[in-house]
Amino acid sequence: MTGLSVVVAEDDVLLREGIASLLASKGLEVLGRAGDAVELMRLVRATKPGLVVVDVRMPPTHTTEGLQAAREIRAELPGTGVLVLSAYADVDQAMELLAGGRAIGYLLKSRITDVEEFHAAVERVAGGGSVIDPGLVSELVSARRRDDPLAVLSAREREVLAQMAEGQSNAGIARRLWITEGTVEKHVRAVLAKLKLPETDDHHRRVLAVLTFLEAR
User: Where on the chain is 4-aspartylphosphate found, per UniProt (predicted)?
Assistant: First the structure.
């Protein structure tokens, strides 16, 4: 990730500086720090960073200012990756963000304490992937709707889809589930076929599959 430019938006100054320090330690160029959404948008428009890390709740109302800023950034600079941080898991927020396509992530703030996991999430988003917090994925797995569109999937296929929802690549899924990458590819193809997703590019079909997974709560 060396050389990747980033803007950090977080109203808690200690957390903001901590995040900026973690990113700088991995070679990212921190172009600016913002304490509210207005300053964030000013910085983003002025510097056009490769990545933005933004808190969902920011001044003045501490509700969804950060989320709204993330939407604006996606609309104005679709090539900029956006990693949204939240103090708690909000299913609807996560689904809305993931629907934005490539280079988008939703991570709980508690995940930042695992430095390697946080760096891995940043790297996936910066590389064009999608990241959903594992805690949110676990919550959704245990809260299925009665009419489950995933009923057509085998237990292993559901496991693979859950890993996809966390933003894992095929290689990453293989390592986590202790199976070969070829087996993962086979399961991914089966998932996409069984969910009857439209024939688009592979990345977009994976996103659609994850959206189906998130909606099956």
Answer: 55
